[in-house]
Design brief:
Layout (H helix, E strand, L loop, with lengths): L7 E5 L5 E4 L18 H4 L32 E3 L7 E11 L1 H8 L5 E7 L2 E10 L2 E7 L8 E4 L23 E6 L6 E5 L7 E4 L5 E3 L5 E3 L5 E4 L15 E3 L5 E2 L26 E3 L4 E6 H5 L4 H13 L28 E3 L5 E2 L8 H4 L7 E2 L6 E2 L1 E3 L1 E2 L14 E3 L4 E3 L1 H8 L3 E3 L3 E3 L15 E3 L8
Parallel strand pairs: 5-11, 7-8, 24-26
Antiparallel strand pairs: 1-3, 1-18, 2-8, 4-6, 5-6, 7-9, 9-10, 12-13, 14-15, 14-17, 15-16, 17-18, 19-20, 19-23, 21-22, 25-26, 25-29, 27-28
């Protein structure tokens, strides 16, 4: 039996991230004859006992609009491969001509080419590493990519809402090397090998020679990582965003994502992934969870029990006196008649009504401001939706707070944590966002405490 430390999971929550299961990656599924990084009977999230790789895309709050089926899944876990496919650097060919570099790169082995000028290229050959498994992530659907991510419009709620946008995610964005033996360390590196087993850093890419004579570089838009302080718990605090190089070194951020000048090297920090590490690919942000961390995370069954507990208390609309109820955890596109709504300025929970509907809204003009009939506070009036992706919760407390402006509901500590996380946006800005739909948070705190009214009888 494998230990709990043998399991990793990614959770996608950035709005520009839509994930697909690449057909060529089907070989990664853990069959009954393979050894998974996770004990199936405890943590395997697949409905099949023979498969423990799934994808997660929280743009859709725990599931895709049409359900998790076929080649499109909502989450995935990394499983120990039947045979190691990791690589490690070996021979360095310095001052090669482009023709010689091409000849070297065409060998049936992995290599990284650093183009210094039109007449000079350094090629680093990589050899097989029997101690590690390699997993690659990127926008490409070619076979070397295990998990494919592409861009969609932020805040989209269904397939009909999505639009095609110019992607900023690299076709071969990053690679993760997982040790096959204890302590099962996972390390991230910028850039992934293409179908020719090569990584090419052109003339315009930031690259340099290290103090020990080796080469290193950065990808065009970079791979950023942030490790939370105090782990991924109710005591978690935001860490500092760093950039990871092609060789796995850690640097401070560049002035902009694609700037030529690299940041300062941070020798005291590592590219080793820990529970709650955030990985940003400039268009898709990934959440890394460990087995030990997930063991402390509420399950969907627990979230469902909390939903039923809230509904059993029979909260009422203070205007219509009708009983409110959160719908089932199954995804719905539109609110139902019992759906709770909230005034985000004050937190008072109501059923849907037209009271306080301002004239500019009635006439179809801009302005979503409503006046709360309880306290007269004016602000957005939105339906409440339970956050269904359990992997984003830092504790198992009841859902008592809602993100502003989307209305996704979660625990107090979870709302406080994500409201403090500056997520990369574009090439040089950061802002906090709801983990369940990726909308940028607004208001003083980014979330509000919900005030329910109980039944009068």
């Amino acid at each position: 039996m494998e230990t709990m430390n043998d399991f990793w999971m990614f959770s996608y929550f950035w709005a520009l991230s839509r994930t697909f299961r690449d057909p060529a990656a089907q070989r990664q599924s853990c069959r009954s004859t393979e050894t998974p990084f996770c004990p199936r009977e405890r943590l395997c999230l697949s409905s099949s006992p023979q498969t423990c790789i799934r994808l997660n895309e929280s743009l859709y709050n725990g599931s895709l609009p049409n359900g998790d089926r076929g080649r499109r899944k909502s989450r995935f876990a990394l499983c120990k491969r039947p045979k190691a496919n990791g690589v490690k650097p070996s021979t360095v060919h310095i001052a090669c001509s482009p023709q010689a570099a091409k000849a070297i790169s065409n060998k049936d082995q992995h290599s990284i080419s650093y183009t210094l000028s039109r007449a000079q290229t350094v090629v680093v050959e990589y050899t097989h590493d029997s101690n590690t498994d390699m997993f690659q992530i990127g926008r490409s659907t070619e076979s070397p990519i295990d998990f494919v991510v592409t861009d969609t419009v932020a805040g989209s709620q269904s397939n009909a809402d999505t639009q095609s946008v110019q992607s900023t995610i690299s076709r071969f964005a990053c690679r993760i090397m997982c040790q096959r033996t204890p302590p099962y360390t996972a390390r991230i590196y910028a850039a992934g090998f293409d179908s020719s087993k090569n990584i090419f850093l052109g003339e315009k890419a930031a690259k340099w020679k290290t103090s020990d004579g080796q080469m290193d570089g950065l990808t065009t838009n970079g791979v950023l990582v942030m490790h939370p302080r105090n782990g991924f718990t109710q005591d978690s605090k935001p860490g500092v965003w760093r950039e990871i190089s092609v060789c796995g070194n850690v640097f401070t951020l560049r002035e902009t994502r694609s700037a030529q000048q690299r940041g300062k090297m941070v020798e005291s920090e590592s590219q080793e992934l820990v529970d709650g590490s955030l990985i940003d690919l400039c268009g898709a942000t990934l959440l890394w969870r460990t087995a030990d961390g997930l063991a402390r995370t509420p399950t969907l069954k627990h979230l469902e029990a909390l939903r039923q507990e809230i509904n059993a208390a029979r909260p009422q609309c203070p205007v219509g006196f009708n009983t409110l109820a959160f719908p089932s955890m199954r995804r719905k596109d539109t609110p139902d008649e019992k759906q709770p709504w909230v005034y985000l300025q004050c937190g008072h929970v109501h059923g849907y009504h037209n009271w306080g509907n301002h004239r500019e809204e009635r006439e179809g003009r801009e302005g979503r401001s409503r006046e709360c009939p309880m306290c007269r506070a004016k602000g957005p009036y939105v339906p409440l939706w339970l956050g269904c992706e359990a992997g984003f919760y830092v504790d198992a407390a009841p859902p008592t707070h809602a993100f502003n402006p989307c209305g996704h509901v979660c625990s107090d500590k979870t709302a406080a944590f994500w409201s403090q996380i500056p997520l990369p946006h574009g090439t040089h800005t950061f802002h906090a966002a709801c983990p369940f739909c990726a909308q940028q948070l607004s208001g003083e705190q980014g979330f509000v405490r919900l005030i329910f009214q109980g039944p009068l009888d």
